[in-house]
Amino acid sequence: MITNAVFLSNLLNAISKSSNDVRFYMAGYPVETIQNRVNDSDPTGTIGIQYPLVQWVLPVNASTLLSETSTRETYNVQLLIAVPKDANDNGTLQSTVTHLERIDRLGAIAAHILKCFRQLRRIKVPVSLVGAASASSVTDRDADMLAQLVLTFQVQINGTCRLLTPEQLAAIDVLANEQSKVDDNESVAL
Known about the structure:
Blueprint: H1 5-17, E1 24-28, E2 53-57, E3 61-66, E4 71-84, H2 99-119, E5 127-138, E6 146-158, H3 166-180
Parallel strand pairs: 1-2
Antiparallel strand pairs: 2-4, 3-4, 4-6, 5-6
Helix pairs in contact: 2-3
């Protein structure tokens, strides 16, 4: 039973956009990274995907624990975080940044996402990280175009959630700003 997928996608969108370094969020299949999408990053679907991109890779994989008094869903989340491999974010040629520097940039975005998830209880969002997260750079058919990092983790959602309130959305931005003030030398375990 999957009842919180839209809620989780909206939460991933809000957390992604709370980073000053993310320009586009979407949920979809990996092949869709090369198609124009209508969403709140591109309401008309004419601009196209902007980078850095955070994509929740479908299909949705979740397990549900039902009791007489509560519902708890655990989602296996796989996020694809990508930037153009040989160009800057707007597509112009950029040869001064190495592939490893791009992967480091994607790792910083992944760390931001995990830090925000760790703080959600503070703002009464019934979502928590479960277990360890992992990240790896990937090579696939788009490898000639994109530097990609796959972030994999589990989240648990207690109850059935439908919408993030305006207060929760604003609080996510506050959490993100608090996280950006943390010393850059602090290490984050992925």
